[in-house]
Amino acid sequence: MTYDLIVIGGGPGGYVAAIRAAQLGMKVACVEGRGALGGTCLNVGCIPSKALLNSSAKFAELSHLSSHGIAVGEASIDVPAMMGRKDKIVGDLTKGIAFLFQKNGVDLIEGWATIPAAGQVKVGDEVHETKNILIATGSEPTPLPGIEIDEQNVLSSTGAIALDSVPDHLVVIGAGVIGLELGQVWARLGAKVTVIEYLDRIMPGIDGEIAKLAQRALSKRGLKFQLGRALKFIEETTTGLKLTVDRVGKDKKEVIEADKVLIAVGRRPVTRGLGLEDLGIAVSPRGFIEVDGTFQTSVPGVYAIGDCVPGPMLAHKAEEDGVACVEMLAGETAHVDYNTVPGVVYTDPEVASVGLTEEALKDAGTEYSVGKFAFMANSRARSTGETDGAVKVLAGPNGKILGAHICGAHGGDLIAELVLAMTKGATVSEVASTCHAHPAKGEAVKEACLDALGRAIHA
Ligand SMILES: Cc1cc2nc3c(=O)[nH]c(=O)nc-3n(C[C@H](O)[C@H](O)[C@H](O)COP(=O)(O)OP(=O)(O)OC[C@H]3O[C@@H](n4cnc5c(N)ncnc54)[C@H](O)[C@@H]3O)c2cc1C
User: Fold this and answer.
1) How far is the CA of 215 from the centre of ligand 1 (A)?
2) 41, 172, 321, 345: which to mutate for ligand 1, most atoms within 8 A of CB?
3) CA–CA distance, 407 with 422 (Å, rounded to integer)
4) Packing angle between helix 12-23 and helix 315-329, nearest 10 degrees?
5) Does the annotation count 438 as an active-site position?
6) Topology, domain 2-140+268-336
7) What is the tens place of the pLDDT at every residue in 151-203?
8) pLDDT, tens digit, for every residue of 216-252?
9) Catalytic pick from 68, 436, 438, 458?
10) For the domain 340-452, what is the CATH superfamily, name and number?
């Protein structure tokens, strides 16, 4: 039998593409090597990290209830039980994808795939024939040279979502989304958490002003930041770990003691073992598979999507890639607008962004206006006590939104309105003239748009 499409990788990019291709009438198989569907996202990424963020937020909230007039006894934490809840959520969701495969007639081939030639996918000793191949092999944590990750004391994100007790002192290397989310999980549960970052700011790529608000709020919640520092090496001592850190641009070293270290300096594409070199598939210097506007690689009939191709390394972006790719394969028109892919950091407060940052607009010499509204002036935020942060919108001379950035509780939900506005080419005036429920945090979005027009009411 010859398949229409074999997808390699059952993460959010691959499994969604496989289901959509089946819906479009293709005979599809998906190859997955890790023993469970859902990829990084469901198994060791988005879902387990959000489950732990949720559990730890509940624990942290207990210590803030007295201002509500609520007294609770001393709270305790059972880390294995918390991990059990997380593992059950992951297990249920990954099994759900296997069910969706059955329902949609997608064949699951378990094992690690290689591509001996265009039109062939080899798993174990078996070679499967196919008209098209879609590579969706995702990404893995980027290691730091000279630092060995043992997942016991020196952790990647995978180890940091599976600890069986709260560390005394966790040092997080890298103030990006993964380091901050997991750092906050363990800080809320009682660990001292120090975040070491090479740059002089946190959350690289996020609008600078919003990142500063986030840093202030995260510091208030217990994260300690040491910016402009680079980890050089880690020594194991009888009492734990000794980290030697360089001050960037200064001839100065510092030593930090910790019992766990999380290396969270980014992710890199996974393509090794596929046979790309022998096939002549072009790969960028950073290891990403190069694709054209239809997601085709330099070899006809072989496509690639998700974290293993350039673009934001996000689950929803991988899904959009996958759907667009197979719809085009089926002869439909499809397009992914990477400028309107939102990104969310699920810390407290959340940080959400879409489109261009103010720094990028300045660098490009683009004319723009700014509208801002602080949650301190939002009545719903005042009533829930979630007053940290602000909404910031950036609009072009015609009023169209070029970028939107939020630091604040539920920012990840609030950004959806601005993503839709950008996708539909709405102006700040159109968002501002839309009726928003009261009292709601969404009113801060409306007010930021009003502010861009110079007429915020509650600022
Ligand atoms: C801790 C953490 C938190 C995250 N949180 C978020 C979040 O909140 N929101 C968000 O959008 N993103 C988040 N991400 C990123 C998100 O997980 C990825 O962007 C997303 O999973 C990419 O999807 P993908 O399908 O491209 O690849 P992956 O999910 O990496 O899936 C690729 C799959 O391919 C399989 N595979 C690889 N090679 C082969 C082969 N040769 N044969 C067979 N199978 C193979 C792998 O086993 C894997 O299952 C997070 C990541 C981490 C680590």
Assistant:
1) 27
2) 41
3) 19
4) 30
5) yes
6) FAD/NAD(P)-binding domain (3.50.50)
7) 999 999 999 999 999 999 999 999 999 999 999 999 999 999 999 999 999 99
8) 999 999 999 999 999 999 999 999 999 999 999 999 9
9) 438
10) FAD/NAD-linked reductase, C-terminal dimerisation domain (3.30.390.30)
